[in-house]
Each structure stands twice: as structure tokens, then as C-alpha cells.
């Protein structure tokens, strides 16, 4: 009970900067697996910013149990992920672990939704019909364990959210990264809403939310996309203010910097998406209030020129990269093949994945 009171107090002190949800990897800064006390420490810090997290797997690092144990008896909510890889092994392992956890915890108390997979269609590991079948399989699993009230979705990049997925899910959980489309920070929010509105138009009234979006705070430029604290905060401010105004739900990518994530050949940004630094405690943005919907924020460029509000002429792809890859075991997976079309990289937490994007022909390998 003392821990719960501490969470409430910390949250009350800093309610000015609030995220609807944060994508979260409980792995430690060195990549090791977490215990429940470490997860509780993370929650105590993150409670200043949100009351909802998304994880990508329950079996990877056996993270499901410590996360659920740390949330037990609190008001924390969880988007609980089922990892889907190039074969069904990871999914079946996560499914078996979910069934086991359902007998240990009352999942209806803390689990807000179950999210099947993360960018497996983008990585060309599964097609949408296969993923839709897994959603129906998971629906049967939940019903068999008295959990039919928990909604189901799929975590996938916007170009691949087709009718198979929209028909299968209860709501759409869409990943959109204007950074990986080579967009300027000034146009990024408009670009995201164009993609989301197109999916809404095809969703037959089903709710659509952003499952992942963010902007790195350090690393190399990707086309005219420039990673910096200033640009990350500007995109955060622009996106969240417009989302609040238009009633768009979202999960921001991500909670903490992942220093253990690979940065090779990926614009060196993969370790720099967190709102907290690599110590999992220190805020990366200045001040106490990061989001101010009454004041425009400034952006920074890698050059002295002002960022244009028109899309770069060098970016011909409309598919943002994906950054999401949970491990299928206690080590991050290394099974991610890059799309052969114009598909920018994705940013998600899970196993190791390597991707190629034709936008600027880069290979990116990420481990979450």
C-alpha cells in the first residue's frame, strides 16, 4: 500500500505533462531482463507522465509476470502485446504464457487491450490474412479464459492496415513515424493525420488510435528529418495538442532510451526515442511542462536554413519505417527483413530486427 500511495503522490506533482500511453520495454539499460522491483521503480518514475503502458510480449524476458505483478492493485493500465514473428513459435509461446498468467492474475483489472503482433506485415514475416486469423484465435483464447471483455487489436504500420486487419480487430492500433518518411518536423503532424484519417475512412466506424509515434532526440539525419531535443519536443507538442483537440488516442514511442538497442546503419537513432534518458530516471526535455497547446514550439535543423513546411522532394515513399520488435525468447529476436518497397523504418520495442527502407536506402537493425 505504501507503494501505491507513492505513485499517487508523484503523479499529482507533475500532471502538466501527460501522455495517454507510453510504449515501454522493461529490459534494463544493459539489455538484461527485469525483476518486479525494477519494474516497480520504473512505474514510480513513469507515473509522473502516464498511467498506461504498452509492452510487446509477455514471454520475451518473461516480462509479463513482473509487469503485471508491479501493476497489481494499482490503477495502471496495459496494452499487452503478443509477439508475432516469421513463424508461429513466438506467438504460440506468448499465447501459452498469456493463458498461464490469466490463472495467476485477474487480467481484466489492468489489461486495457491485447495487441497481436507488431509490424510483422511490414517486415514481410506474415500477411494480413495470417495476422487476422491470429486475432480470431486470440479472441477464442480470451473467451475460453473468461476475458472476452478485453478488446483486441494489431500493431502495424499504416500502409499495411488493410481490410483484413480492420475487419478482425475491435479497434485499429496504427504505427506512424513521419521521421522515417523523411519529413520535416514542421509538416510531420499533418502527415500523420493524413494517414490516420485515411484509415478512419476505411474503418467502418471502428476506433482508430496511434499505437506508436515519436521523434528521436539524437542521431543522424534521415533525409531532411533531423533528430534533436528541440525537434522531438516540437513534434510531441504539435502531435499531442492536435490529438487532444481531435480526440485521437495514442501511445507515444517511447518511455526510456534503450541504450542496448542497435544503432548500426539506422541513422544512429534507435537508442534515442525515450522521454527519459538511459538511466530510466532523468527527463530529456527542459522544464516541467513539455506540452503547451497555447504556444508554438521551435524546431532545429541540421543546417542554418529554416525547415520547410513542404515535403522534401527527395522522399518518394509514403510508408514510414517501423520500430517495433519484441524478442521471441529472453534474447531480442534478430528476424526482421526489410521491405522491398518504399517503406520507412518502424520504431517499436521487441526483438532485434533489421530493416531496409528505399527512402534513403538505409539498413536499420533495432533490438528492443
UniProtKB/TrEMBL annotation:
What's a Gene Ontology MF term here? glucan endo-1,3-beta-D-glucosidase activity
Alphabetically sorted, this entry's keywords are: Carbohydrate metabolism, Cell membrane, Cell wall, Cell wall biogenesis/degradation, Glycoprotein, Hydrolase, Membrane, Polysaccharide degradation, Secreted, Signal
Q: What topology in the membrane does the UniProt record assign?
A: Single-pass type II membrane protein
Composition bias of kind Low complexity appears in 297-348
A GO biological process held by the record: cell wall organization
The record's section on InterPro entries has: Beta-glucan_modifiers (IPR050732), GH (IPR017853), Glyco_hydro_17 (IPR000490)
* Entry GO CC: cell surface; extracellular region; fungal-type cell wall; plasma membrane
Enzymatic reactions: Hydrolysis of (1->3)-beta-D-glucosidic linkages in (1->3)-beta-D-glucans
| Compartments where located | Cell membrane; Secreted, Cell wall
Role this protein plays: Glucanases play a role in cell expansion during growth, in cell-cell fusion during mating, and in spore release during sporulation. This enzyme may be involved in beta-glucan degradation. Active on laminarin and lichenan.
Region of interest (Disordered), ranges? 297-354
Per its UniProt entry, what is the enzyme's top EC class, as one word?
Answer: hydrolase
**What family does the entry list?**
Belongs to the glycosyl hydrolase 17 family.
Q: What is this protein called?
A: glucan endo-1,3-beta-D-glucosidase
What are the EC numbers? 3.2.1.39
The yes or no answer to whether the keyword Protease is present is no
Q: Where is the signal peptide?
A: 1-15
Amino acid at each position: 500500500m505504501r507503494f501505491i500511495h507513492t505513485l499517487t503522490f508523484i503523479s499529482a506533482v507533475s500532471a502538466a505533462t501527460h501522455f495517454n500511453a507510453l510504449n515501454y520495454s522493461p529490459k534494463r539499460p544493459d539489455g538484461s531482463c527485469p525483476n518486479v522491483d525494477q519494474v516497480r521503480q520504473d512505474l514510480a518514475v513513469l507515473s509522473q507522465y502516464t498511467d498506461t503502458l504498452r509492452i510487446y510480449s509477455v514471454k520475451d524476458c518473461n516480462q509479463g509476470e513482473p509487469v503485471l505483478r508491479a501493476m497489481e492493485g494499482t490503477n495502471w493500465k496495459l496494452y499487452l502485446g503478443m509477439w508475432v514473428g516469421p513463424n508461429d513459435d513466438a506467438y504460440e509461446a506468448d499465447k501459452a504464457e498469456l493463458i498461464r498468467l490469466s490463472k495467476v492474475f485477474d487480467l481484466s483489472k489492468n489489461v486495457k487491450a491485447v495487441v497481436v503482433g507488431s509490424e510483422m506485415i511490414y517486415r514481410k514475416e506474415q500477411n494480413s490474412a495470417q495476422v487476422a486469423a491470429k486475432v480470431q484465435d486470440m479472441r477464442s483464447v480470451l473467451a475460453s479464459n473468461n476475458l472476452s471483455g478485453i478488446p483486441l487489436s494489431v500493431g502495424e504500420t499504416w500502409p499495411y492496415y488493410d481490410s483484413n486487419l480492420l475487419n478482425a480487430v475491435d479497434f485499429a492500433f496504427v504505427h506512424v513515424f513521419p521521421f522515417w518518411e523523411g519529413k520535416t518536423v514542421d509538416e510531420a503532424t499533418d502527415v500523420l493525420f493524413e494517414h490516420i484519417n485515411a484509415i478512419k475512412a476505411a474503418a467502418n466506424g471502428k476506433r482508430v488510435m496511434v499505437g506508436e509515434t515519436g521523434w528521436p532526440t539524437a542521431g543522424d539525419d534521415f533525409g531532411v528529418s533531423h533528430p534533436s531535443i528541440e525537434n522531438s519536443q516540437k513534434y510531441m507538442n504539435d502531435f499531442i495538442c492536435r490529438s487532444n483537440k481531435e480526440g485521437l488516442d495514442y501511445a507515444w514511442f517511447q518511455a526510456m532510451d534503450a541504450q542496448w538497442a542497435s544503432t548500426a546503419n539506422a541513422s544512429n537513432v534507435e537508442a534515442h526515442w525515450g522521454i527519459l534518458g538511459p538511466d530510466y530516471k532523468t527527463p530529456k526535455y527542459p522544464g516541467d511542462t513539455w506540452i503547451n497547446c497555447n504556444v508554438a514550439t521551435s524546431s532545429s535543423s541540421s543546417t542554418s536554413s529554416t525547415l520547410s513546411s513542404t515535403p522534401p522532394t527527395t522522399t518518394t515513399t509514403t510508408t514510414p519505417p517501423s520500430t517495433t520488435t519484441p524478442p521471441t525468447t529472453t534474447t531480442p529476436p534478430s528476424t526482421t527483413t526489410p521491405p522491398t518497397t518504399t517503406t520507412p523504418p518502424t520504431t517499436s520495442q521487441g526483438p532485434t530486427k533489421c530493416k531496409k527502407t528505399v527512402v534513403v536506402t538505409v539498413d536499420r537493425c533495432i533490438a528492443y
